[in-house]
């Protein structure tokens, strides 16, 4: 399952290497999004991702799950499976197999959306819905399955494929806002359970066709966890990026591998 936006803001890390040309902008606190603003963002992102769902040969024949923004104070897990042990971190968005819906935690999403700059707020909403939709395509979790690392990385990667097939990527000048959303999805204190920021960033770029990894399969994501990827320099570049809450700017120089779309006969998002 996807997890909550991480709101702790550590000190910026030093930039290293000529490829790291990100512009650093200070974070500005903001009030949580209004109900109307958040609902509009969810509606717009859902419509765009529906188009991507229809364009992807692996999902075109499947019904598109409904996307539901929960009422205030209602949690994703409490709504979908209230008898299950509490998940830590609590999911911000997830596919609920019992109802066939994507559920969004209004409080967590509104807080994250309100604190983000306008382009980043839209990317956050789009990212969460895309990864939750991608959970629909993964094998159902089994009791006692343990770590969520592989399913989360697979959902992040598969969400990137969905984003690449939808008009959503055209709303952003490059992959930077989506990359920030992926990296900031969890605090690093949860890395052992849900993957590190750099692993999620690499998984998302893989789905967008911007890495040397060829698929979102569990074996490929297991290799990512071990750092055994074809383009380790790109993974290292992502690891050296500033904290997600402070980084914004062009990342095109850091994506230094040939674009490889994972959808057949479709161009990569970076070539639109």
Q: What is the number of strand segments?
A: 3
The radius of gyration is: 17 Å
Number of domains: 1
Overall 3D form? globular
* Helix percentage range: 40-55%
> Structural class of the helix and strand makeup?
mainly alpha
Largest sheet: 3 strands, mixed
Q: Secondary-structure element order, as H and E? A: HEHEEHHHHHHHH
* Number of helices, counting only DSSP H or I runs of 4 residues or more: 10
Quick synopsis:
Helix content is 40%, strand content 4%. A three-stranded mixed β-sheet has the order 1-3-2.
How does the SSE layout of this entry go?
Elements (H helix, E strand, L loop, with lengths): L34 H21 L10 E4 L6 H5 L12 E4 L4 E4 L1 H10 L2 H18 L13 H17 L10 H8 L7 H4 L2 H11 L10 H8 L6 H8 L33
Parallel strand pairs: 1-3
Antiparallel strand pairs: 2-3
Helix pairs in contact: 1-4, 1-5, 3-4, 4-5, 4-6, 5-8, 5-9, 6-8, 8-10
Mind explaining what this structure looks like?
- The chain has a 3-stranded mixed sheet.
- Helix 1 (35-55) crosses helix 4.
- The protein has 272 residues and is mostly helical.
- It contains 10 helices and 3 strands; from the N terminus they run H-E-H-E-E-H-H-H-H-H-H-H-H.
């Amino acid at each position: 399952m996807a997890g909550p936006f991480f709101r702790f803001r550590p000190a910026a890390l030093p930039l290293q290497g000529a490829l790291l040309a990100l512009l650093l902008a200070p974070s500005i606190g903001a009030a949580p999004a209004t109900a109307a603003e958040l609902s509009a963002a969810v509606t717009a992102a859902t419509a765009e991702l529906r188009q991507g769902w229809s364009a992807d040969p692996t999902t075109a024949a499947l019904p598109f799950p409904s996307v539901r923004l929960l009422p205030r104070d209602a949690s994703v897990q409490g709504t979908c499976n209230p008898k299950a042990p509490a998940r830590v971190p609590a999911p911000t968005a997830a596919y609920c197999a019992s109802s066939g819906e994507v559920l969004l935690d209004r409080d967590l999403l509104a807080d994250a959306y309100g604190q983000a700059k306008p382009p980043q707020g839209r990317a956050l909403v789009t990212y969460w819905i895309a990864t939750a939709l991608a959970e629909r395509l993964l094998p159902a979790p089994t009791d006692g399955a343990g770590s969520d690392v592989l399913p989360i990385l697979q959902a992040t990667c598969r969400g990137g494929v969905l984003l690449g097939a939808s008009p959503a990527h055209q709303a952003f000048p490059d992959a930077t806002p989506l990359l920030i959303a992926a990296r900031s999805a969890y605090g690093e204190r949860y890395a052992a359970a849900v993957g590190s920021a750099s692993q999620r960033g690499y998984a998302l770029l893989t789905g967008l066709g911007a890495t040397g990894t060829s698929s979102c399969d569990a074996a490929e994501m297991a290799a990512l966890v071990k750092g055994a990827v074809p383009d380790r320099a790109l993974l290292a570049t992502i690891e050296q990026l500033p904290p997600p809450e402070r980084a914004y700017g062009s990342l095109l120089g850091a994506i230094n591998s040939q674009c490889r779309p994972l959808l057949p006969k479709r161009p990569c998002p970076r070539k639109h």
